[in-house]
Amino acid sequence: MILTSFLIGLLFGLGLIVSQMINPAKVIGFLDVAGNWDPSLAFVMGGALVVTGIGYKLLNRRSRPLLVVEFLVPDKTTLDTRLIGGAAIFGIGWGLAGLCPGPALAALGSGAQEAVIFCVAMVVGMAAFRWLDKLLSVPAGLADG
Are residues 87 and 94 in contact, defined by beta-carbon separation less than 8 angstroms? Predict the structure, then answer.
């Protein structure tokens, strides 16, 4: 199981490197549709959609997965403020930095300063979210002490 996870992660990371998803300038060039647009990453995303579609088709043919007890398939079907807010923050961060979490972690191996700064900011952001989420989810009567 651990070896399989490692090999899949390695393949994913190599795909990010080969496709240049770890290069912030390449990603920003793709996102800059009003300026000097670089459409090459559209092929990367299209390829990912094809592989995902085939994967879901194959998944539906099996009664259970090969390496774990059950399928872990997203089941959420509604849009809420957390989902929309998270997607907006993700998109803004991706547009500003040219990195998102997967490629940023893969880019850490190159020692790129942008990747290090991004990953530190990402960890701080995740910690801030957990703290704020815990703070806001405390029932009103208990928050007073």
Answer: no
| The two structure tokens encoding residue 119 | 């990953």
Quote the pTM value: 0.74
Cα–chain-centroid distance for residue 7?
18
8 Å CB contact between 118 and 96: no
Query: Could you read off the pLDDT of 37-62 as tens digits, one per residue?
Result: 999 999 999 999 999 999 888 888 88
Domain boundaries, the chain: 2-143
Instruction: Determine the number of helices (DSSP H) and then strands (DSSP E) in the chain.
Output: 7, 0
Q: What's the sign of the alpha-carbon dihedral 61, 66, 68, 74? A: negative
